[in-house]
Hints:
The structure holds 2 protein chains of 2 kinds. Chain A is an alpha+beta fold. Chain A folds into 3 domains: 19-28 and 438-544, Aldehyde Oxidoreductase, domain 4; 33-128 and 184-234 and 239-272, Aldehyde Oxidoreductase, domain 3 (Alpha-Beta Complex); 154-179 and 275-436 and 550-693, Aldehyde oxidase/xanthine dehydrogenase, molybdopterin binding domain (Aldehyde Oxidoreductase, domain 4, 2-Layer Sandwich). In chain A, 23% of the residues lie in helices and 25% in strands. Chain A is built from 14 helices and 26 strands. In chain A, helix 8 crosses helix 9 (371-377). Chain A starts with 18 loop residues before the first helix and ends in a 16-residue tail after the last helix. Chain B is of the alpha+beta class. Chain B has a single domain, classed as Enolase-like, domain 1. Chain B has 3 helices and 4 strands; from the N terminus they run ββββααα. Chain B has helices spanning 84-90, 97-108, 120-140; strands at residues 37-42, 53-62, 65-74, 81-82. The interface between A and B is medium-sized, with 20 and 17 residues.
Amino acid sequence: MISSTQQRVIGQPLERIDGPKKVTGMATYAFEHALDDVTYAFPVQSTSAHGHVVSIDAGAALDLPGVITVLTHENAPRLNPQIPGELAVLQSNQVSYRGQFVALVVAETLESARHAAESVIVHYEEQPHSVVLRPDSSDLYKPDHVNPFYETDTASGDVEAALSTAAITIDHTYSTPAEHNNPLEPHATIARWSSDGVTLYDSNQGSHRIRDTVAQAFGLSPERVRVISPYVGGGFGSKGKVHPHVILVTMAAQLVGRPVKFALTRQHMFAAAGYRTPTIQRIRLGADADGRLTAIAHDVVEQTSTVEEFAEQTALPTRMMYASPNRSTTHRLARLNVPTPAWMRAPGECPGMFALESAMDELAIACGLDPIELRLRNEPQSDPETGLPFSSRGLVACLREGTWRFGWQSRDPQPGVRVDGRWLIGTGVAASTYPTRRRQSSAIVRVNHEGHYRVLIDAADIGTGAWTILTQIAADALDVPLERVHLDIGDTLLPPAMIAGGSMGTASWGTAIVDAASKLRARLQEKRGVIPTGGLEAKGECGENPEARRFSMHAFGAQFAEVRVNRDTGEVRVPRLLGVFAVGSIMNAKLARSQLLGGMSMGLSMALHEESILDSRFGDYVNHDFAGYHIATNADIGSIEVAWIDEDDPYVNPLGAKGIGEIGIVGTAAAIANAVYHATGIRIRDLPITLDKLLS
Amino acid sequence: MAFHRLPGDEPQRDTVLEHSELITAIDLPRLPFAVRSHYRKVRDRASYAFALVSVAAAIDVTDGIVHDVRIAFGGVAHVPWRAIKAESVLRGAPATEEVFRHAADAELAQAQPLRENAFKVPLVRNTLVRTLLDLTQEEKR
Lengths: 696, 141
């Protein structure tokens, strides 16, 4: 816990510390680091979805002015064969998906490299490819676990028996399309080798993770890899892991003996930087006449690649959301000739809660109950999966708070009856949830004899506000004014820390900083407050939370949507969203609001727009740019109100913070789909909700 | 001669412009009744998107009868689509929703949609009818 005599800065809506640097262009992003003697790389991607490379003719490319080399599987350095399959780039002639890197041109300028890449001629021996996810595919398989290490299937009680005797049953299949993360800053890496090893300037969500993977790939001790990433322009999960371009540029720099810069284009990102798997989800609910659940079953089909397994934990939230004596969840995967799916904001919870919360709305209608009342009736007393008590569970409070804030009380449940001119109007609600966890992190806090403090931790600020929040936490933990604290993040020379992922950053980093600060204060006390001329320092740790063995820990929320659907065209507008969240203590009211608002905007975008469209003939995502891959524009966003309830949870971490990076996107799409049903009487179970699905 | 062309054997050519030709002037003859015109663009999102379908229309109604009308569709063919058949159904007919619907159907009777864009037929029908209703109801006010 933090004891402070100063006015606490935690919670205050401070401006971003890094804001002025960002808006004046002084914050250096990965590609912008200036290095002497630098060269540029541009890749050649496979035009085949399955097969192998027979030959590569790089002669014309090498003859072009400024071209230094062309890397192919024939001349690329050999990597440690133990690395994940997606990273074994240029290690064989195999082609596993369209868009896979088959060569890399290095040249004196980016323009030369790009021109030369177009001149590389690759011949393929093609094999039939399988790229379309089908629920009835015969070769679906059961993965050993789902991301990261959850059980693949769970079962308790007898779902089939309960469904056969239930007064009311719901049995529907919902689907979500492939979606691409598309952070504003494309993935970029500069690699420079020296006698000390290799230095990478890289856009990522956690430098130590990048360091360890690159060290493994190149057979280096981790100390010989340094990764520098002070500023990152968004990630949404896609910069949490090493993607092939990082390996490729590191190989290129090794081969040419000069620094190499490599930034993915927006189009490259649709094959080379991860995406959310499409999902096909069957939900079965059984309830008694009062709407009390007697059975919940959630069966998920999704995809992975042939090079590496990624199994999204889509049914995870169904395991703990609602009380029911009989429950089961399953996950099955199709191994397709596609890029490997990966993390995208709230993997698991985001697509899973679209299905579950749509089904709950359908159940409420079948029971003749208000959807909020249905959820109140199925509120569990303890975690239905583990039997553990919740450290805190704010779902009911969020639903109640939202009820009056949104004006839900006066809602007429009848669908398709509210009209304003040519527009039908409806409202919908859905629940949100996200697990509260923390992971191993360490921090050092130093004070010099002038009383200035430095906080050292390899945290990452991917736009979340970590620069600011960690400084606030340190100031309170040290009981000193904010101005006396200087933070260093985004460099593997700093103490190792959890990546910015799983909504665990603030909890993990903050816990380590609080620990370091408290140790430093103890040392200062030993010295009776006199700082030695050499200064003092202390190292703090965040470990696994022992309380996690006693409590089930989750954040919750309730999302409300108002939609308008045009009666002539089926166009959908969302004039109003409200999200009420129970997410523990808020570290910075302004930045927290931004995070939740951003999550809900992305949820709206998922509901109405985002869909990566695969051309089954060629196996590529055809809408691989911002003209074709629609993300909500400013004009699509109406009023978004964000609120949170007071929640004091002493078990999650010393800060009481539950993590807010992901919960905002969980449930938004279901709230909107439920509102579309209320407006039109048409139930859309397949995202996105485009107008063709509503035209009668 | 129409400026835009259908794909035919040269799908790479959108217009009749030959190499080394460029447009030097566009002549827009006066169309007095088009002071009352509408352009409606229906998109997959509210802004920054191509039209799924668009309808441009001007209509001249006297004593409840359509005296003259101009209609063009976007997003339904390789060229901006002048709805000649709909226009001819409308000329001389009463300006009612039923007639507007009939005119739209006449134009769309020979539409050849594909699996993924079949929704454009009802979409352009509804959009045309609504555009004409908006124009004529505006006139009544």
